[in-house]
Amino acid sequence: MSTHSRRRGLAGGLAALALVATACGGDGDETRTVTAQDYRFENLPATVDAGTTFRLTNASRVELHEMVVFRIPDGETRSVEELIRLPEEELGAIFAGEPDMVLLAPPGGGEQIAAVGTGRLTRPGRYAVVCFIPTGADPAAYLAAAQTSDGPPDVPGGPPHAFNGMYGQVIVR
């Protein structure tokens, strides 16, 4: 085998390895699909590498769901369940500023909407994953109100889905 053929073979082999590494999500370039269900997140991984991108799908036929992701401050030891039950002003002080990500998914398998961020988590840490959509809120009314709102829209409905158990956490390493 000539040197040229060996180089071409080696280059082809390296290219194939690079494709396999990319397909397997090497170096945190992985995409993880989370399914919103009334009232839980399915396939929410416990731990991911920095650089992982999330995609949200909705298995509900009725409820709009969202995946709001906040980085939990270092040193905060309470569970996500404890945190979401805090009074609004105390919770706001812990999660000051804009969330790291807000993905919405309409019922019936509609297209995901990236309202905040790209769906990619790049900073290591512990993250709260929560759905704050009011129970029973009209999806069309919520999405229409979101177009003119500077924050979560104020629409009729019951308690946030999080209070029905739709929360979790992800550790980014």
Short description:
With 173 residues, this protein is of the alpha+beta class. It is 24% helix and 29% strand. The chain is globular, with a radius of gyration of 20 Å.
Please characterize this protein's 3D structure.
- The protein is an alpha+beta fold and 173 residues long.
- 24% of the residues lie in helices and 29% in strands.
- The longest helix is centred in the first third of the chain and has 21 residues, at 3-23.
- It starts with a helix and ends with a strand.
- It has helices at residues 3-23, 80-84, 88-94, 139-146, and strands at 31-37, 40-42, 47-48, 52-58, 65-72, 101-105, 113-116, 120-121, 125-130, 167-172.
- It contains 4 helices and 10 strands, in the order αβββββααββββαβ.
- It has a single domain (28-172), classed as Immunoglobulin-like.
- It is globular, with a radius of gyration of 20 Å.
- Strands 3-10-9-5-6-7 form a 6-stranded mixed sheet.
